[in-house]
Amino acid sequence: LRQEGELVKLRRARQKMSELFPLTEEIWLDWLKDEIKMASEISEREKVYELFERAVKDYICPEIWLEYAQYSIGGIGQEGGIEKVRSIFERALTAVGLHVTKGTALWEAYREFENAILETAQLEKIHTLFRRQLGIPLLDMEASYAEYEEWSEEPIPETTIKNYKKALQQLEKCKPYEEALVMK
């Protein structure tokens, strides 16, 4: 059925077989990968999550858990996505994290995920600092703006540009008074 591209019939056959017998690691992985290819919408992703849940109950396998964790990373943009990924990784570590020959891949994947989250959060913090600073009338604002333009890999948001221009105008009004204070 798979070779013929009869994925709907193949799904039914797998479903029937899984009701009668525990499936092997290979059959689960093939089935999961086929379903992942076909899942594009959120409702379909939920069905794949349910299938993973069945697979990890049916067969304790580091490869299935690793595939599950990596698949869950694809849903990180959904509400509660990060927590869901962490929960799956934690469950996976409990189930197969001590597997002597295959546990390492799971630990490495979890660390890579956390590092990516950390880097993303750090970048967002720096963006926020630049945007806050550029909304305040400060000397050498132009240099800060240029630094932000050079540092940022994405275009500066319109609201930040608007706030920056407004702060520049406020600075021009204050500048003569500030310079007079420096001269004294």
Quick structural gist:
By secondary structure, the protein is mainly alpha-helical. It contains eight helices and no strands.
Element order: H for helix, E for strand: HHHHHHHH
Structural class: mainly alpha
Low-confidence stretches: none
- Termini separation: 88 Å
Shape: elongated
The helix count comes to: 8
Can you count the beta strands?
Answer: 0
Beta fraction = under 5%
Mean pLDDT: 92
Oligomeric state of the chains present here: single chain
Profile the largest sheet: none
Helix content: over 70%
How big is the Rg?
26 Å
Keywords: mRNA processing, mRNA splicing, Nucleus, Repeat
Subcellular location: Nucleus
Main location: nucleus
InterPro entries: HAT (IPR003107), TPR-like_helical_dom_sf (IPR011990)
Can you describe this structure?
- The protein has helices at residues 7-20, 25-38, 42-58, 62-73, 81-96, 103-134, 141-151, 158-183.
- The chain is built from eight helices and no strands.
- The protein has a domain at 135-184.
- The longest helix is centred in the middle third of the chain and has 32 residues, at 103-134.
- By secondary structure, the chain is mostly helical.
- Helix 4 (62-73) packs parallel to helix 6 and helix 5 (81-96) runs antiparallel to helix 6.
- The model has no long low-confidence stretch (mean pLDDT 92).
- The chain is elongated and about 90 Å long.
- It is 77% helix and 0% strand.
